[in-house]
Design a protein that fits this description.
The complex is a heterodimer of chains A (about 500) and B (about 50). With about 500 residues, chain A is an all-alpha fold. Chain A contains 19 helices and no strands. Chain A is globular and about 65 Å long. Chain B is mainly α. Chain B has one domain (about 1-50). Chain B contains 1 helix and no strands. Chain B has one helix at about 15-45. Classes of the chains: A mainly alpha (about 500), B mainly alpha (about 50). The interface between A and B is medium-sized, with 24 and 22 residues.
């Protein structure tokens, strides 16, 4: 293995992280007198567990299953896409937690507790499910369906838990601060997600540098314990009991009505379409980047896991720049998002070039740029969504954003895996980089399509008309449509 | 001690509140029990013991 590149990598990642940290201090003004920054940071620990789960599944396990456990890539991609079955329900989860009935007057905590339980349960059975699936030990003689259903169940549990924890956790964070600071808080949460991804990718890379089945069990179950611990710490005493909410009459808005009201906003559906296309474009290579590095460029598990680190570092830079441009320089969110998609196109062209030239540094640079574009795009579109949402529907809007984003990413991941495997089966497409190239080409196409759709949005300026909504007096008891404020 | 007839000794929760807390405990026990059972079955498939 090439030790010098590996070392540079880690130093680069850590140096980048250290340089960026002070940039995020502006988020501190999100902490009002009632909610100090320390409490917000503690709450954001749940994002670290979500990041851990994402890196473990999309990055590390993806490679371990394909290369070490020799599970077919289509099966792996479909398994990894399973959690995304729950993605469309994120909007429903956000809405349900908004209107949750509880004798204790809690709205968010019961959901975070349930989500954490599912996340833990999935991780607890996942290593054994994977070993049975790969026919390890006596499992060779076991019927195939046991491994398949158990692995599917574990991924479903982790995915469901992750979606619930993230959606409701973000909603809780949004509850805790005044409306004008909510976008900054969500920014803080996403930075914590990336920090969690970077840290856990480094740790998994180190722990799994020598792979054994026993080590796999330790790592995944260790993740389960850390998850329940961090989520417990994050939610401890965050949400106040609220007797008046417990006694208040049930609000009678149907989910479909709320959803229709949200999608009737001008430009909303187009924005969601841009989010879907752009996310699919950026996300399609996610599960293929590591096997691509391993099989085409002969990188080790530790090295390919670090590719995910580089991707996350790029996103972090994108987030930092995007929040500066959106906050201080007053750029429109859609301008930033368009720029992100624009940067993504050459990045994936570079990935294709690295397959032809067989140069690892080019792949690393391309990964960094792709991450940067994804960061700009993600921040821009999320901010645009939040600004486009009425104040009493921010939870639902967050859910819709997450639902569209994760569904698109999941569909793209599954499609990418299927395309690669179909190309592998083709008589003359089997060797080298050939199976991967069409996927990277498709990503370029999707990003171009997102750019075309986004450009009119930028002109049309969906958020100027809505800024009036966000700049309502904070003490106003009723939203723009006369509905009572749902904040405590 | 409380004058509120709904409150249950010794927690100071009302009956409905206490039942809700209890429901979370029951849910947790069920889910964790099912997970533990499943994990044991899967381990027994890969590396059987007692046999």
């Amino acid at each position: 293995m090439d030790v010098s590149t590996m070392f540079d990598y880690k130093r680069f990642a850590l140096g980048r992280l250290a340089a960026i940290a002070p940039q995020y201090l502006p988020f501190a003004d999100a902490a009002s007198d009632e909610v100090p920054l320390s409490r917000l940071l503690r709450l954001s620990l749940f994002q670290i567990t979500v990041g851990m789960a994402l890196v473990l599944m999309v990055g590390t396990l993806n490679r371990v299953m394909i290369v070490e456990l020799q599970v077919p890539a289509t099966l792996v991609a479909l398994m990894l896409a399973l959690p995304l079955v729950f993605a469309p329900f994120r909007a429903l989860i956000g809405f349900k937690s908004d209107t949750f009935r509880s004798a204790l007057g809690l709205r968010r905590l019961p959901w975070i507790f349930k989500g954490t339980m599912y996340q833990f349960g999935g991780f607890a059975i996942m290593p054994f499910a994977l070993l049975v699936l790969s026919g390890y030990g006596e499992a060779v003689d076991a019927p195939r369906w046991i491994g398949l259903t158990a692995a599917a169940l574990s991924f479903l549990l982790v995915g469901a838990g992750m979606h619930i924890v993230q959606t409701v956790g973000l909603a809780l964070a949004t509850d805790l601060v005044p409306p004008e600071d909510q976008p900054k808080v969500v920014g803080l949460m996403y930075v914590m997600l990336l920090v969690g991804m970077i840290l856990s990718a480094l740790i998994y890379g180190a722990l799994l540098s020598t792979y054994t089945p026993g080590r796999l069990i330790q790592v995944i179950q260790g993740t389960a314990v850390v998850t329940i611990f961090l989520n417990g710490l994050a939610m401890w005493k965050q949400e106040a009991r609220n007797r008046s909410r417990a006694l208040a009459p049930r609000s009678e808005i149907a989910f479909s009505t709320a959803l229709r009201r949200l999608s009737a906003r001008p430009g909303m559906l187009r924005l969601l379409a841009v989010i879907a296309l752009g996310t699919a474009g950026f996300g399609m290579a996610d599960v293929l980047l590591e096997p691509f590095g391993g099989q085409v460029l002969q990188m080790t598990v530790a090295q390919t896991t670090r590719l995910t680190v580089v991707l996350a570092c790029g996103s972090l830079v994108g987030f930092a720049l995007a929040s500066r441009w959106l906050g201080r320089d007053g750029l429109q969110p859609m301008t930033v998002a368009t720029l992100g998609a624009f940067v993504g196109v050459p990045a994936f062209l570079m990935v294709m070039a690295s397959a032809v030239l067989l140069t690892v540094p080019l792949l690393i640079a391309a990964t960094l740029i792709a991450g940067f574009g994804a960061g700009l795009f993600g921040h821009g579109t999320l901010t645009a969504t939040m600004r486009a949402a009425p104040r009493d529907q921010i939870g639902l809007a967050l859910g819709a954003w997450g639902a569209v984003q994760t569904t698109a990413a999941g569909a793209a991941i599954a499609l990418g895996g299927v395309i690669r495997d179909v190309m592998l089966l083709a008589p003359d497409g089997a060797q080298g980089a050939a199976p991967y190239l069409p996927v990277f080409g498709l990503e370029v196409g999707l990003l171009l399509l997102a750019l075309i759709l986004a450009l009119p949005l930028r002109r049309q300026d969906i958020d100027t008309g809505l800024r009036t909504t966000t700049s309502l007096p904070t003490g106003s008891p009723a939203g723009p449509d006369g509905l009572a404020d749902t904040r405590p | 001690m409380s004058n509120d007839p709904d409150k249950v000794w010794p927690t100071g929760l009302t009956l409905r509140e206490a039942e809700e807390v209890h429901s979370y405990l029951i849910d947790g026990t069920r889910v964790f029990g099912a997970i533990a059972l499943l994990a044991h079955i899967l381990v027994a498939v890969t590396t059987p013991w007692l046999g």
